[in-house]
């Protein structure tokens, strides 16, 4: 699944760049697409919509859901599994998205919430300006994971959006 998650993030980035190029072209110069902004609120919404849609294909229920109007539940985004009687049997994915707070303290605060989840997949999405900053955050979050004592088995994906490079940088681990 981690490979699929990375693919979905890359698809979101590619689509955002196409939109940015179209906006720049409409203003008369497509070569200035890099000056167009993929706003944090748009990223957040598009990530949730993509994962909601893909989760629905897998028979998973999402929170929040733009389809049902259900709000967030414990984390910024989750996939939940239910049995035939409607009993919650598990959380397949827990995701924290921190796009508005571009500092490590805020990112780490949300990551610490993920550490406590018993979800099979834990995804942390954040953004920083420079590639070196993203890589430093990836290292820092991995160290936080290594330090946490009460780990539930899980697959982790860290997805850092580098605003300068206009791409996601990934780090995954068990």
Task: Characterise the protein shown here.
The longest helix has 25 residues, at 2-26. The chain has four helices and six strands; from the N terminus they run H-H-E-E-E-H-E-H-E-E. Helix 1 packs across helix 2. Helices cover 41% and strands 25% of the residues. The mean pLDDT is 94. It is an alpha/beta fold and 174 residues long. Strands 1-2-3-4-5-6 form a six-stranded mixed sheet, with helices on both faces. The chain has one domain (2-173). Strand 3 (88-98), helix 3 (104-115) and strand 4 form a beta-alpha-beta unit. The chain has helices at 2-26, 40-57, 104-115, 131-147, and strands at residues 61-63, 77-82, 88-98, 121-128, 155-162, 167-173.
Can you tag this structure with a few keywords?
25% strand, globular, 174 residues, 41% helix, six-stranded mixed beta sheet, 6 strands, alpha/beta
Distance between the termini: 13 Å
Strand content: 15-25%
Q: What fraction, in percent, of the residue positions are helical? A: 40-55%
Query: What is the total domain count?
Result: 1
Averaged pLDDT: 94
As a whole number of angstroms, the C-alpha radius of gyration is 17 Å
Number of strands: 6
Question: Within the largest sheet, what's the order of strands?
Answer: 1-2-3-4-5-6
From the spread of the alpha carbons, the general shape counts as globular
Q: Please state the structural category.
A: alpha/beta
Secondary structure tally, helices = 4
Poorly predicted segments? none
SSE string, helices as H and strands as E = HHEEEHEHEE
Sheet with the most strands?
6 strands, mixed
